[in-house]
Write a structure and sequence with these properties.
Strand order of the largest sheet: 1-2-3-4-5-6-7-8
Strand content: 15-25%
Order of helices and strands: HEEHHHEHEHEHEHHEHEH
Shape: globular
Radius of gyration: 20 Å
Distance between the termini: 66 Å
Protein name: EAL domain-containing protein
Number of helices: 11
Bound molecules: ligand C2E, magnesium ion
Number of strands: 8
Helix content: 40-55%
Largest sheet: 8 strands, mixed, barrel
Organism: Pleionea litopenaei
Structural class: alpha/beta
């Protein structure tokens, strides 16, 4: 086989970049249309009490069917939305839709768990965001205690002080805050304590490490649980995939569990069936 010559390599490289840009532009165009026509829906991933195994809350996750058809999920389209400014409209849509669904399941099934809503990093630097949350709560007459906003630690790196101020502003509305994907970013344990959050979600890579006899990952889980205990933060373990992990987490005081083993993200109908039978 002939080795790739410098020029050929460059052509491959350029083609990849061009492909990447085209893909990004496709996502941007499709998202713009989806926003115009509200072509989104939510799926509902239950969060369980580690002790009682009851559903205590639900994380709402966005889906864009016109992108799903092309194999593009939120992991890929949310960053495009963030870099193009489309994210504000999407986050607002998600908030509005979530609160209206929350009211429906509360009225119809007496569901009293919390709704966990993912918030883009962009909103931590958006002065209008707390006002948006407040008017949504008022519009839907939802008590703020039912709402948990999930933020990822990578959102803080630009401007830690500004982020903390924004988090305090959000907290003053009465909603609770949770730090998502903990362990994957750059937050030091000491910063975890500075952030005014109520809950920490341990990223699924660490929970999966519990089964791989990965000492580092296990230590990380142990330390988060110990610190959370000390500072009175609640812990949600993400990506739970078997009973052994549940046993380990429960023994160490982890309050809540989420993962494919317990439930995959559910359609609106299946979520209703789940909580209907729980009553
Ligand atoms: P996330 O907030 O960490 O959400 C959890 C993701 O992990 C979900 O993927 C969920 O399906 C997946 N997951 C949960 N348990 C397991 C498990 O046991 N095994 C495996 N393999 N996966 C599991 P999804 O729905 O593709 O979402 C990806 C990310 O996109 C989310 O990560 C979140 O950062 C973002 N996202 C999703 N919905 C929204 C939204 O409405 N707004 C914003 N701003 N971001 C969102
Ligand atoms: Mg999340
Ligand atoms: Mg997460
Ligand atoms: Mg994530």
């Amino acid at each position: 086989q002939a080795k790739l010559k410098g020029k050929n390599r460059l052509q491959f490289f350029n083609r990849d970049i061009a492909g990447g840009i085209q893909r990004k532009q496709f996502i941007e165009r499709t998202l713009t249309k989806a926003i115009e026509h509200s072509h989104f829906h939510l799926v509902y991933m239950p969060i369980y009490s580690a002790v009682s195994r009851e559903v205590v809350g639900v994380e709402v996750l966005i889906r864009a069917p016109t992108l799903t058809a092309k194999g593009i999920g939120p992991e890929e389209f949310i960053p495009v939305a963030e870099s193009t400014g489309l994210i504000k409209a999407i986050d607002t849509w998600v908030l509005n839709e979530s609160l209206s669904r929350l009211n429906y399941v509360s009225d119809r099934y007496g569901f009293d768990g919390f709704f966990a809503i993912n918030i883009s990093a962009v909103e931590l630097h958006n002065k209008e965001f707390p006002g948006t949350v407040r008017s949504m709560l008022m519009k839907h007459q939802v008590v703020p205690e039912r709402i948990e906003l999930e933020i990822t630690e990578t959102s803080f790196v630009d401007n830690i002080e500004g982020s903390i101020r924004q988090l305090n502003h959000l907290k003053s509305l009465g909603v609770s805050l949770s730090l998502d994907d903990f362990g994957t970013g750059y937050t030091a344990f000491t910063q975890l304590i500075e952030f005014p959050v109520d809950k920490v979600k341990i990223d699924r890579s660490f929970i999966q490490g519990l089964s791989n006899s990965s000492t580092d990952k296990r230590r990380m889980v142990d330390i988060v649980l110990a610190l959370a205990d000390l500072y009175q933060l609640e812990v949600i373990a993400e990506g739970v995939e078997n009973e052994a992990q549940i046993g380990y987490l429960k023994d160490r005081g982890c309050e809540m569990l989420q993962g494919f083993y317990l439930s995959k993200p559910l359609s609106w109908n299946d979520f209703q069936k789940l909580i209907e039978h729980a009553e």
